[in-house]
Amino acid sequence: MIPVSAVGSLARRFGRLEWISLAIALACSTGLVIAALLAPVYQSQSVSSSGITASGSATLVGVNGWRALLIAAVPLAAAVMAGYGLWRRAGRPGAGVLAWTVTGLLACFNVLAMATIGVFVVPVTAALFTACAAHGGRHTR
What is the distance, to the nearest Å, from the Cα of residue 65 to the centroid of all Cα atoms in its chain? Predict the structure, then answer.
């Protein structure tokens, strides 16, 4: 019986820099989704007619609705799609059209969203660019 190792399979498909870059992209983009759901980003303060002050906070999804979660999930979807594109090209040189296209589209999203969440997407975009550039086309045999 031959032991099966998921780590060995990943090592054959991805190089070290590529693997680390993809892991960083996935971790950062997952963190964005979790932060949109749980992190208090809005602060409120109200004063009643009797002079009592009440303070509160709300999350991005709590204030802007579920559309905000969809927007925060764009980097995660891009990281998964780029990772899939690199996985499919394991034995061939170059990152491929899918991985580079998704990474380029995420960079455009970055620029368009720079006034809101774009600055938080920069690490994901940089990690995906690094993973695409590091893909060297190792042979799996």
Answer: 20
